[in-house]
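Feature request disguised as a bug: please show the residue count (224) next to Phosphoribosylformylglycinamidine synthase subunit PurQ in the output. Example input:
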Amino acid sequence: MTVAIVQFGGSNCDRDAVRALSHLGIDAELVWHEDDLPEDTTGVMLPGGFSYGDYLRAGAIAANSPIMAQVREAAESGVPVLGVCNGAQIGCESGLTPGAFTTNRSARFQCEHVYLRVENADTPWTAAYEEGQVIEVPIAHGEGRFEITDEKYDELDADDRILFRYCDENGVVADGTNPNGSKGNVAGIVGESDSVAVMMPHPERATLPDIGGTDGEGVLLGFA
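Example output, currently without the count:
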């Protein structure tokens, strides 16, 4: 079994993802976007970075890379797929999940630790947590503001497809705890199947104790 970490031109969190998954005992392999997914692929991760320099808009070009057709087919067959940061942007642009990520409310690149409240613990990506639990993970993005129509947002909320919301250390969700202006403080969602998820914060950067905490481990255990 192998989790394929898809590399695009401009990816820069791909090796971080491999190391984090390996630390958890999960086999991972880097796969260039012009190549095919390995036959033994049991999971796919779209990593962070700046694919194609965010030209046009973040994730738009990478979403049309040759390998993404295979990623969509894998997702439809039930293979777990996780998009993180730029990977989340690619996931939305490619139709794996609804909505879009756009320029931060501050119009600045933001790199900091944030708190997330687990909204639905009944998914592969959140099964290691309790509903309402607060975890701390880093963000690093300039286009992390999640946007979606009011109607679609209400559907996500009603269907328990919101994974995480930005909050304070006590789990309070408010405008002041929203680092980028995301609608409803949304930090991560699942697609039509909960085996497909995208999130803007970086769980792979919160898995190694020697570099700042392990709160993100539970997300990556969705591949286990």
